């Protein structure tokens, strides 16, 4: 069985882009793959954070995985900092990663711009830790949104370089980026991706937003000129984004939705329907999420068991890498 690895940073609210771009695909993949889903808290501390919020966010990220349909009997769920193999492997990979290739990382450039007074080594090294996450589990497939593709590419480069230098050790992973939903755009600015670090909360839908808030945000979402409901990301980025969201939450193809709205002459009706569909999609998720959070001990137990099992896999890869390098 092939292995899938992915993760979400517990840095504040998880938004619809994370869900539709990544987590939704995980749920489908777990039927046919050995899946490992990590709450990547060491990645979350590379930008300013509050310790109290971090622990709650980590728990909520795990609850999100579970409420979305990740089944701990089928898939491994654990917290990155519970398995020290990740940081140890990151150190090893640091010695083969090259500074110029890390300087080229788009996310590093963006985050450095965002947090000018807090550009730390961890932020620079972020993609190497991500490579360690992936390579430790002999991962075949990494389902991510478009913004993480460059990091998966780096993981491939590092794996190949290590194998060439020290002998065959790592499997070369591949990213899986879905055609639809790989880049959900901001509701207030359809030219930028939906992001938890956006200035305005009108940019994103948080998975726990109430129906009123969701409806309000979609009502206020930017639209394009004209009144046609047509998918055309270049000329109609806002409507195309709403169509993508609508399609993913209802599992209806975009062409079908275009047909359904052929005779519509106003964006307002369309937006109302998108909002209703998002609410309908998120309501059962929110119920499960809230129920789970009432039992934090159960979540913690799942994470504890997950970390133990994860380590059984990762320690073999780590041992092999160290042996190949002559570390005794
Ligand atoms: P993070 O926490 O920023 O995002 C989690 C997942 O959500 C995707 N995503 C989006 N997809 C579509 N539209 C958007 N607007 C959007 N915003 C985010 C991301 O691509 C990602 O798949 N570095 C990673 C976490 C990580 C990881 C890993 C992922 C650490 N180690 C190993 C895969 C494998 C991150 O910060 O994702």
From TrEMBL:
**What Pfam family is a match for this entry?**
tRNA-synt_1b
UniProt short sequence motif 'KMSKS' region, positions renumbered to this chain? 193-197
For the keyword Membrane, the answer is no
Q: Where is this motif: 'HIGH' region?
A: 10-18
SUPFAM superfamilies xrefs: Nucleotidylyl transferase (SSF52374)
Query: Where is this gene product found?
Result: Cytoplasm
Question: Which GO molecular function annotations are given, in alphabetical order?
Answer: ATP binding; tryptophan-tRNA ligase activity
Q: Does the keyword Ligase apply?
A: yes
Q: Record's GO cellular component, any one?
A: cytosol
- What is annotated about its quaternary structure and interactions? Homodimer.
Q: What is this protein called?
A: Tryptophan--tRNA ligase
Name the source organism.
Candidatus Portnoybacteria bacterium CG_4_10_14_0_2_um_filter_44_20
Annotated gene: trpS
């Amino acid at each position: 069985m092939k292995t899938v690895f992915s993760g979400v940073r517990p840095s504040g609210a998880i938004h619809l882009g994370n869900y539709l771009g990544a987590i939704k695909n995980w749920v489908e993949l777990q039927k046919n793959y050995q899946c490992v889903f990590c709450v990547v808290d060491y990645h979350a501390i590379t930008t300013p954070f509050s310790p109290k919020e971090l622990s709650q966010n980590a728990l909520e990220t795990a609850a999100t995985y579970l409420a979305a349909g990740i089944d701990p009997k089928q898939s491994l769920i654990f917290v990155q900092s519970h398995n020290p193999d990740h940081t140890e492997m990151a150190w090893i990979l640091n010695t083969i990663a090259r500074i110029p290739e890390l300087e080229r990382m788009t996310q590093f450039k963006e985050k450095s711009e965002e947090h000018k007074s807090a550009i730390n080594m961890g932020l620079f090294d972020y993609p190497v830790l991500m490579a360690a996450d992936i390579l430790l589990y002999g991962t075949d497939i990494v389902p991510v949104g478009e913004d993480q593709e460059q990091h998966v590419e780096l993981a491939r480069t590092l794996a190949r370089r290590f194998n060439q230098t020290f002998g065959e050790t790592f499997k070369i992973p591949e990213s899986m980026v879905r055609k639809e939903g790989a880049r959900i755009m901001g509701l207030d600015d359809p030219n930028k991706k939906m992001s938890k670090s956006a200035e305005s909360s009108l940019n994103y839908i948080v998975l726990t937003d109430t129906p009123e808030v969701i409806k309000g945000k979609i009502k206020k979402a930017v639209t394009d000129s004209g009144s046609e409901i047509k998918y055309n990301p270049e000329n109609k980025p806002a409507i195309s984004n709403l169509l993508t969201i609508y399609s993913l939450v209802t599992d209806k193809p975009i062409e079908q939705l275009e047909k359904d709205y052929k005779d519509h002459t106003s964006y307002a009706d369309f937006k109302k329907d998108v909002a209703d569909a998002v609410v309908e999609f998120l309501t059962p998720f929110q119920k499960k999420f809230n129920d789970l959070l009432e039992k934090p001990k159960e979540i913690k137990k799942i994470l504890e068991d997950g970390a133990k099992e994860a380590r059984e896999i990762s320690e073999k890869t780590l041992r092999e890498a160290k042996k190949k390098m002559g570390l005794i």
